[in-house]
Amino acid sequence: MKIELLYIDDCPSWETGLQNLKSAMIQEGLIADIDLVKVHDDVEATRFKFLGSPSFLVNGSDLWQETRETFALSCRIYATPNGIKGFPTVNMLREKLHSLVEQPS
């Protein structure tokens, strides 16, 4: 399983997102490296199909996919049980990771 966290420096939420991802992985019993991918400019944002910081990819697919035609350096928001936040909760990440682990190869 390849796990990536795409982020921009100007986003204040990516570090909390990373900590939540690590916690979710521990709670799900997943052992994998997390590759941090810093997106530097709009050209890279387009190449990565960057949906905002932080974005969580597993095996190249965003855990919260959206259909878009344009991509740019921006922060991302998530609808959490506690309202709109700049990162998903540990439980939200656990649900996504758990569903991926349950899928047959």
Please tell me the CATH architecture by its name.
3-Layer(aba) Sandwich
SSE ordering: EHEHEEEEH
* Helix percent band: 25-40%
Spatial order of the strands in the main sheet? 2-1-3-4
**Number of helical regions:** 3
Distance between the termini: 11 Å
Radius of gyration, CA atoms, in whole angstroms: 13 Å
Mean residue pLDDT: 94
**Overall number of structural domains:** 1
Relative strand content: 15-25%
CATH class: Alpha Beta
Would you tell me the structural class of the helices and strands? Answer: alpha+beta
Q: What ranges have pLDDT less than 50 throughout 5 or more consecutive residues?
A: none
The total beta strand count reads: 6
Q: Name the shape in a single word.
A: globular
- Reported by name, the CATH topology is Glutaredoxin
Major beta-sheet overview: 4 strands, mixed
Salient structural properties:
105 residues, 4-stranded mixed β-sheet, two-stranded antiparallel sheet, 3 helices, 6 strands
Write the layout of secondary structure elements.
Elements: E1 3-7, H1 14-28, E2 34-38, H2 42-48, E3 55-58, E4 61-62, E5 78-80, E6 83-85, H3 90-102
Verbal overview:
- There is one protein chain.
- The protein is α+β, with helices and mostly antiparallel strands and 105 residues long.
- The protein has one domain: Glutaredoxin (3-Layer(aba) Sandwich).
- Helices cover 33% and strands 21% of the residues.
- The chain has 3 helices and 6 strands.
- The chain has a 4-stranded mixed beta sheet, covered by helices on one side. A two-stranded antiparallel sheet has the order 5-6.
- Helix 1 (14-28) crosses helix 3 (90-102).
- The chain is globular, with a radius of gyration of 13 Å.
- The model has no long low-confidence stretch (mean pLDDT 94).
